[in-house]
Amino acid sequence: VLNVSGRDYRDWRMEIDGKKEWKEIFNSNAIEFWGSGTCLNDTLVNHDFNKKTKSCVLKFDIPALSIQIFK
Asked: Do residues 61 and 10 make contact, with C-beta atoms less than 8 angstroms apart?
């Protein structure tokens, strides 16, 4: 996820196909990368997993001017 705006997005929802468990493996806003350490997603909340389509809705925070990678 790439956010090039100067705004944080809290409780952002995104529909994703495939797995129902996701983990943030990189966040450029983490303190170890000289970020502010806000909007870190240790655990992603999975909402409405659809067994038929194998899709789910993830809810997470997106910090301003950041890159996030999920696995």
From this structure: yes
Cβ distance 63 to 35 under 8 Å? yes
How far apart CA 12 and CA 8 sit, in angstroms, is: 10
User: Which amino acid is present at 36?
Assistant: S
Residue-wise pLDDT for 2-53, tens only, equals 999 999 999 898 888 877 778 899 999 999 999 888 888 877 767 777 778 8
Dist CA 6 CA 3 (whole Å): 8
**Three-class SS state of 14:** strand
Tell me whether residue 28 is exposed, middle or buried, using C-beta atoms within 10 angstroms of its C-beta: 0 to 12, 13 to 18, 19 or more: middle
